Amino acid sequence: MRILGLLLLGGVCAAQSAGAPSSASATAPASSAAPAAEVKLVTIPAGTKIPLELKQAISTKTAREGDPVYAETAFPFVLNDRVMIPAHTYVQGKIMHTQRGGHVKGRAELLVHFTSLIYPNGYTVMLGGNIENAPGAEHSSMKDQEGTIRQDSDAGRKAKEAAGGAATGAVIGGVTNGGKGAGIGAGAGGVAGLAIAMLSRGADIRMEPGTSLEMEIQREISLDSNRIKAAAN
Q: Is the same domain home to 86 and 188?
């Protein structure tokens, strides 16, 4: 009987072993993670020019070095049949130098450097850019290759003011004291007109929101093609 009981117990254990799933087979295979999208870089070469529109007013009367500058791409920039920078991409920069017009000499100047692109989907890229041309800034021109905007000379306006003062003085002097008075009045009026012209500052540079600018990329920019494709859609 004892031997029979041992045989029965061994059979029960063997049956339980055969029926129980192995830990390896019971464990469900872990789901494999989706492979990350391969990063494909595309490049915008140095020297590329991109049209922008200014988003805020800037004036050398109130601007300070370090003030932020905000602009926006006016049109999609396409390179090799691919939209590299869609329209309405934000461009951020800062004022590097500002100078008001002088009383006697020196014209107003403004230097802006652009530092980053912010795509509509939030993709942000650092860049180095400056103003190559400012067709929307009236009565100004580019001073140097660094991108400094300089107000046009207003020496003619000041000379006109001095001449106007001389003419006014001559009329007043002529009415009161005849020919001699006209000469004296012209001299006095000319001095007064010149003094007014010298006391007045040269014109400031002022650019309104929507002013057209042209940015030049100063160094090559590498972009993630997947992210710019998503931004363009």
A: no
pTM for the structure as a whole:
0.65
10-residue averages of pLDDT along the chain (233 residues): 47 49 48 64 95 96 96 94 94 96 79 96 95 87 86 61 49 52 51 49 89 95 92 78
Domain shared by 52 and 159, yes or no: no
118 Cβ contact partners less than 8 Å away, ≥ 6 residues apart: 89, 90, 91, 92, 124
Asked if 143 and 214 sit in the same domain, the reply is yes
Q: What would you report as the CA-atom Rg of the chain, rounded to the nearest whole angstrom?
A: 38
Give the SS3 label for residue 46.
Answer: coil
> Residue 35: helix, strand or coil by DSSP?
coil
Residue matched to tokens 């580019």: 142
| Cα distance between residue 102 and residue 204, in whole Å | 10
The 3-state DSSP class for residue 73 equals strand
Domain extent, residue 144, equals: 41-154+204-232
Distance CA 233, CA 228 (A): 9
CATH number for position 93? 2.40.128.260
Can you tell me the distance from the alpha carbon of 205 to that of 153, in angstroms, rounded to the nearest whole number?
Answer: 12
- Regarding whether 185 and 132 lie in a shared domain, the answer is no
What H or E segment, with its residue span, contains residue 15? Answer: helix 2-19
Q: Would you put residue 150 in left (φ > 0), alpha (ψ -120 to 50) or beta?
A: beta
Q: Report residue 112 as tokens.
A: 């802006």
Does one domain contain both 182 and 71?
Answer: no
